[in-house]
Amino acid sequence: MSANVRCGVIGFGKMGMLHASLANAIEGSQLAAVCEPNRTIRNGFETLGSNLPAFENYADMLDQVPLDAVFICTPPSSHIQIATECVRKGCHVFIEKPLCLTAEAAQPLVALLKQTGKIGMVGYMMRFADTFSKAREIVRQGALGRVLACRGATKVSQNYKAGKGWRYSRKESGGGVLIAQGIHMVDLMCWMLGTPHSVNLRSSNHYSRTVEDFVQALFSWKDGIIGSLDSSWSVDGHRMMLTSLELTCENGTLAVDDDTVRLFLRKAAGEYKEGWTSMSKPELSKGVSADIGGTLYTKQDEAFLRAVRGQGKIESDVRSAWSVQHVIDCLYKSADENGATVDLDKVF
Amino acid sequence: MEISDKLILGHNQFFGVNHLSSARGVATEQYFSSTENVISLVRTAYRAGVTGLMLSTHERARAIAEALRNDAELSSNLRLHILLPYMAKYVRMANERGSISMLEETLKQATWAERMAIGLKAGAGVLKKDLLAILAALIKIELLPFKGLNVQSVFLHNSLTDMLAALRATEVVRFFLKNITEEFGACPAFCTLSAGLTMSFFRDIGLEAPVIMAPFNPAGFQMNPSRERCEQLLQEYPCHMVAMSVLAAGYVTPADAARYLSSLTGIDSIIFGASSAGHVTELAGVLGTVVGQTVTP
Question: Which residues pair with B189 in a beta bridge?
């Protein structure tokens, strides 16, 4: 590998621009090329004056530019094919979430990564939010005792009419608000509590034509934990996406969102006192090389690029994203069966 | 061209932005959904020595601009500092419609001549290649609500400043400087949450004394990559620095913030938010001492 990790970005939309900027801002890596089929965006990239090549076709980029790592920021339906070709060309891959449309489709990529030893990371950036990483640390320290129940939500005031483009075509995106946004909470729940054993989903659409705008999901874990998720992109009062999770445990409660961690303990445990402890973002945050779309993205990309350099392991890997995808598949299957309980071990 | 205001009132409280608590953000947004309440706070601030007001190009800024235009005291004395674009709107539109549709729909607001200039054919929705012409049109559209007001500076939103710095997009930075100066007669300025990266880049490309708005607080909140590095660059690189996030979203007290800011050399102005008359007067007093802006009651 060259002194700097040489990065390519495929798909120069909102997320592609973010990762391209971060790849150039993080020490030890640099942007080397981008690929974007839309000519206007490609021209725009060229006007930036970086003198880096912008390709229409990713195969050309992979053939012509030596790259160590590729950020894949295209619609989900194309992720697996592109990631597979990148890995075959010897690149490590970062894939924007969701991993793909179904867990089954991702199976060959999981095997290929295992065989080649290449890094494959998926963009579940909420794991890198200061509040959620603190919450997980508290749960794992055991201060709360056994988790009994959890209640998650993602909400944003975004869609009040039928949206346009791939996000609103189930064929290309895999679904609506669940796979676009609620999936972050599914990932956080799996990260903190393990993969659930059975799920139910009720969903509805009002604004979107073919994908869901509202979902209410139920989860059961083998050790008796039960949980729920309420997710919508058509609710008022949230100019930015709110991600929140409340865990009810034997020794208290943990409530976490994008801004704060609130802990209530019935009995003091470890470093935490009895009663309420509140921790806010300014208290938990540490500096990052650059904050372009939020420090969580920087930390995520730093973790990926560190792993590419052989320094440290990543947690949000393709294997764990495959499990999240499996849960999503089962949730959609449940919705198709009017909310019937779907056992994960009976699907796929 | 420089910024003459020592104290600037921020706009976050008007538009529901609160970095410590989204719930509190919603509550203050509700109070300030009345333009009268906004103007009343701005007037109190102005009389306490806060001679500048920052406004983002949020949908509601139009109503606030209109109310300011109709206020004899504020329209002639208060200076406006515009932050553009209102990023949340564009991110939402890009999510809803995709990046290209977002641009097309925004540009529909341009005049016929502007649309011709950027190669946007009426009704056809075709974007031609010149990014800088598109940017010029977008800036013009964003600034329309403030026409005729006393706009002293135009700040580029931190997401864009930091992206341009990361991609080392020198040409676009120079275009922004020229466009804001020549087209609007205002002072071009940059907001950043990556002061280390952005200031180093500006220094590398030889920008002389740029106007920068960046976080400075004793908690080191949003001071990237570190408090030490930001303080070092403030010492080394001559620029007009507007300190923001001085209270670290309410995490530090005004007295601690003032003590910290007074220990630095190179802070020229301070921008802060407040949501009540009492709060704005208190902060104007405490922070005013840092930049030498004191008003005798």
Answer: B155, B211
Peptide bond into B225 cis (omega under 30): yes
Answer for the pair A102, A48: CB distance below 8 angstroms, yes or no.
no
The Cα-based distances of A274 to A250, A253, A266 in angstroms read: 14, 11, 6
Q: Tokens 């923001």 sit at which residue? A: B244
Q: What residues have CB less than 8 Å from B284, skipping those under 6 apart?
A: B7, B45, B48, B49, B50, B293, B295
The strand pairing partners of A252, in sequence order, are A249, A265
Give me the pLDDT at residue B89, please. 72
- Which residues 219-238 of B are in CB contact (within 8 Å) with A? 219-227, 229
Report pLDDT digits (tens) over B269-283. 999 999 999 999 999
pLDDT tens digits for chain A (348 residues)? 558 999 999 999 889 999 999 999 999 999 999 999 988 888 888 888 778 999 999 999 999 999 999 999 999 999 999 999 999 999 999 999 999 999 999 999 999 999 999 999 999 999 999 999 999 999 999 999 999 999 999 999 988 988 878 888 888 899 999 999 999 999 999 999 999 999 999 999 999 999 999 999 999 999 999 999 999 999 998 888 999 999 999 999 999 999 999 999 999 999 999 999 999 999 999 999 999 999 999 999 999 999 999 999 998 999 999 999 999 999 999 999 999 999 999 877
Q: Do the chains contact at B97 and A165, CB–CB below 8 Å? A: yes
Per-residue model confidence as pLDDT tens digits over A92-114: 999 999 999 999 999 999 999 99
Q: Is A27 on the interface with B (CB under 8 A)?
A: no
- Tell me: ipTM over 0.90: yes
- B221 → closest Cβ in A39, A239, A285: A285
Q: What angle do CA A148, A248, A130 make, to 5 degrees?
A: 120
Helix/strand/coil percent split, chain B, to 5: 50, 15, 35
Residue B215: enclosing H or E segment and its boundaries?
Answer: strand B211-215
- The strand pairing partners of A269, in sequence order, are A272
Which of B23, B94, B19, B90 shows the shortest CA–CA distance to B57? Answer: B90
- What is the separation of C-alpha A285 from the centre of its chain, rounded to a whole number of angstroms? 20
Which residues in B lie closer than 8 A to residue A287 (C-beta atoms)?
Answer: 220, 223-227, 229
Tell me which DSSP letter residue A154 carries: E
Measured between alpha carbons, how far is A286 from A245 in angstroms, rounded to an integer? 23
Contact between chains at B222 and A47 (C-beta distance less than 8 A): no
Cβ-Cβ contacts under 8 Å, B91 against chain A: 14
Q: Are B155 and B213 in contact (CB under 8 A)?
A: yes
Contact A33, A65 (CB under 8 A): yes
**Whole-angstrom Cα distance, residue A300 to residue A187?**
15
Across the interface, whether the CB atoms of A292 and B159 are under 8 A apart is answered: yes
Q: Which two tokens stand for residue A9?
A: 């970005």
Using the Cβ of A57 and the Cβ atoms of chain B, whether some distance falls under 8 Å is answered with: no
Angstrom distances, CA of residue A249 to CA of A57, A138, A246: 51, 12, 10
* Block residue for tokens 């010149």: B130
Residue B85, both tokens = 């674009």
Q: Do A48 and B164 touch (CB under 8 A)?
A: yes
φ, ψ dihedrals at A198, nearest 5°? -145, 155
- A281 vs B19: CA distance, rounded Å: 8
pTM: 0.93
Residue B270's H or E segment, with its range, is strand B267-272
Work out how many CB contacts closer than 8 A connect A with B: 149
